[in-house]
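Q: Could you fold this chain for me?
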Amino acid sequence: MGKNKQKHKIIQKQSNVENIADNSLFVKNTKWIMTIILLISLFLRTWNLRNTPCWYGDEFIYFTGAWELINGSLRIGALKWSFFSSFLPNPPLWYIITGLLLKIFTYDILIARLWTAILGVIATLFIYFTGKELISKRAGIWASFIFAIYPLAVIHNRWSFIHNQAMLLIFTCFYFCIKFYNTRRNHWLNLAILSAGLASITCYWIIGIFLFLYVFVFITDRKKIVKTIALSIVPIVLLLIAMFIKDGDRLFYEIKRIISETNRGTAQKTIFDTIKYIFNNYVNFFKIDYMIFLGGIGIFFIQKRFYKYVSLIFFFFLSIEIFRQRSNIPVFFYPAIGLVPILPIGVAALFDRASQIIEKLLLKANKQKILKWTTAIFSLILVLVFSPMVKESFTGVITSKLKTKIDYWANESVENTEATAKFINEKIGKDDFVIASGELRWLLKCKTTLLTQVSAKEGVPYDPDVIIEDKDFFFDCSHTNAKFFVLDNIERRWTMWQGGCMEVVYKMEKENWVPIKQIGEYIVYANPKLNPDIANTNRQYGGVSIINNPDAYAKIAEQYFNKGDFNMAAYEMEKAARLRPNDPQMYYNLGAIYYNKKEFSKVRTNWEIVLKLDPNNIQAKQGLESLKNH
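A: Sure. Below is the predicted structure, expressed as structure tokens.
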């Protein structure tokens, strides 16, 4: 009897605290507060959207894929593409919606970005709804505010990546599952199934949402598990049927190729390697910033046990597949955007638990006047805690200097990109073809392709695990058929180092491709065979090498050295040394090449330069000592 009475008092006290939380002046104005938060979310995701953040090549692969699809062509540059192509295995829903919007309005990156920005705003609203169901109204408000201003969410919602659509669909599935549990109304479960199904034809990486959905239904109402499985796979089954009807041979070819590539990749990794790889991704993910760290911890503080376990299962099933697929999550974060919406709810749970502790103490002390202000006070604390992120997002958006970790590979100036496209368009016909990176290709009025595709066509795919054959190409995109090649930052800093791309550019250099125009980071090179007049009259940039990178020339020299071609090895290493004259390693390697050529005077000259730059270099000292016999 005494225990029951004590339990009743505890429940009553808990109920009193919850009533205080949901009846405070702050929460009573939820509609106005949420309107302000949604306006903040909208502003941060749409202001100066076309040019901020920088244009990033991968974004334009998705964007141009949507445009090609809606115009009846399944292609990415010169490559044929299906929704199961191993080099870009993405289902069609985002491409169809984005393509329709481009067709209705205009073919411009602003339209694609606007769609994903709106998805981010809608996600802000659903985070409020979910926080309200899991914890309380005020927790929902706090969580939606955090997501609205969170810099990584702002940045990635402004990029036209398919993962933004996947993010919203998987999170609405989670919300509908919670609503089903709370109300036991079947239409909420049906909406959850629909969201999961649509997510499956948006992005294959969301396979974890199916695992979560099936586990959830098994726990809450296992009689519906067969219906749930059957209905959730309908969209992906319909996609397979449609692909089979359109081109069955192509479908089987793509599936067979994916299986072959998967088996080859799996054979190279042990189970231990895979577990270690995933674990490292988890560690790196939670080290990104304090919102993610606090959010991960906060999920454990969701008070109702069922909600806590369901939230953890949701996060685990989604994250494990993403972290299995993707490396370097802190830099290439966009696949992980689907994990973000649950984390602000975790932070809100932490704040809600802390505020409840204070409210219980105030209730016990009968401090009613202070008690009614606790929600407002904790809201102010939350704003102060996240004020650096508020400042980062607003400053970046307003000043158009929204910095990201992939800016190194993005374009420096939209104006320069457009000016370069205008220059090239004045010199091409629709049947010509140009090699350029993604952010430039969509502006060109001719056939275009990526340098990685040229490399694949010439026998070396950029990823050794990806199989690309001649029949995968729409046209012969060998570099000799290109009228122009445009070198920019992403080509210099990333593409050139993939697969056989360096060899392709090196061939251009040996063939005397001529630089005819430089606009900022962009240098336009003309194929002398297809542009004899341009090549002969535009040599003001003559003498500038295309590669122009000492590490690249050193790599090429090493390849020649390993083949025994010491003349070409010395020629390329000389170029590397000229570009980096203060690097003793360049001169040591050059001396080693001349040693194999038995040109000992040149060996001595280069190794003496090494000692001038690095007087303690043991290798050079020993080398010069050995030359006394020559």
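A (continued): The two ends are 104 Å apart (CA to CA).
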